[in-house]
Each structure stands twice: as structure tokens, then as C-alpha cells.
Amino acid sequence: APVTFSYHTLFVYEKKLGEKSNFRQSLIMGTLGNIYHIRKMKWCFSNNFTSYIEVYLRLDGEKRQLPSPVFN
């Protein structure tokens, strides 16, 4: 349900969020980060995406600047 909520939020506010890519990324990463803390993400995401999120959401809370992911 959280991923569906994010999808609908992004769909409804696409024009407003299109201009604020940092806010959009924070919204998505916050939602996915909460899912990650509840259960491991491999239940619904690919290994490549899970690895990307694990690097981005470090245990010390510091976020790294990463290049855009390439998912196959």
C-alpha cells in the first residue's frame, strides 16, 4: 500500500512535483525506507534496486549522492 500511495501521489501532483525533483526523491526514498525497516525489500523489488537503496539509506543516516540507477 505505501508504494501505491506514492504512485498515486506522484500521479496527482505530477506537474507540481516535476519542478521539485529533490522533494519527489525525498518522498519516494522516505516511503521505501519505511518499507525497508519493516521488512527486507527483496519481497517486491529486484536485487539491483535493493542494492541501490541499501547504499543510499546507510545505517548512519547520511545520504550519499549516487548516480541515477539503471534497472534492467
Automatic annotation (TrEMBL):
Upper lineage is: Eukaryota, Metazoa, Spiralia, Gnathifera, Rotifera
What name has this protein been given in UniProt?
Uncharacterized protein
Q: Taxonomically, which superkingdom?
A: Eukaryota
Q: Which organism is it from?
A: Rotaria magnacalcarata
InterPro entries recorded: Mediator_Med23 (IPR021629)
